[in-house]
């Protein structure tokens, strides 16, 4: 199994509060991703990173920011959480970072976030 | 824009039945990659298979088989002799050749296998 951990695994917070989710990998992979999973929507890409300090937006990036100061950590921040951000958040890593090859993504265990 | 359609929201079968999960995709890329993931009730996402657009050979892995047809933009997944442990949500996903490996997922098909 890919060495990916997410913390916290569960969180309940109130509307308007900041929340940071952490993804940590021990594989030294260059590419990391954040997705959210909602009923009826499958998984949707929020942000991704292709190296330290290199990030880009995905399909549903509004209301989220990310940071990657170290290869092993990718942080997802909700600056002011809203009820619409109640979801299950998955982090993923990709085996290799090449501009000519798409590689398989492996997922962390997920974080269940509830915004009241 | 890429799109993945899994028209079957939920499928119920009895153990030992064969079941096929459908996946239809849309892309303008000539090179792309298709994936299937399994999400059991415990919630984790498990990688099952990856297929490149230039490799249309069908693949079999134990009770699992995959039928990739570019002519119909489909990448269907068949479980032979289903078992209760196959009960899960199955996601089909599509990646382009940009090098960033971002995935576009279908909405998933929930498979319920009863004893």
Sum up the structure in keywords.
heterodimer; A: 116 residues; mainly beta; seven-stranded mixed beta sheet; four-stranded antiparallel beta sheet; 11 strands; 0% helix; 57% strand; B: 115 residues; six-stranded mixed beta sheet; 52% strand; globular
Would you give an account of this structure?
The complex is a heterodimer of chains A (116) and B (115). Chain A is mostly beta strands and 116 residues long. Chain A contains no helices and 11 strands. In chain A, the strands form 2 sheets. In chain A, strands 2, 4, 5, 6, 9, 10 and 11 form a 7-stranded mixed sheet that branches. A 4-stranded antiparallel sheet of chain A has the order 1-3-8-7, with no helix packed on it. In chain A, strand 7 and strand 8 form a beta hairpin. With 115 residues, chain B is mainly β. In chain B, the strands form 3 sheets. In chain B, strands 2, 5, 6, 10, 11 and 12 form a 6-stranded mixed sheet that branches. In chain B, strand 5 and strand 6 form a beta hairpin. The mean pLDDT of chain B is 93. Chains A and B meet through strand 4, strand 5, strand 9 and strand 10 of A and strand 5, strand 10 and strand 11 of B.
How would you concisely characterize the structure shown here?
The complex is a heterodimer of chains A (116) and B (115). Chain A has 116 residues and is mostly beta strands.
Mean residue pLDDT of chain B: 93
* Number of helical segments with 4 or more residues of chain B: 0
The unreliable regions of chain A are none
CA distance, first residue to last residue of chain B: 41 Å
Please give the most extensive interface between any two protein chains, plus how many residues each contributes: A-B, 29 and 27 residues
Q: Which structural class should the secondary elements of chain A be placed in?
A: mainly beta
Helix share of residues of chain A?
under 10%
- The string of secondary-structure elements of chain B, in order, is EEEEEEEEEEEE
- How many beta-strand segments of chain A? 11
Biggest beta-sheet profile of chain A: 7 strands, mixed
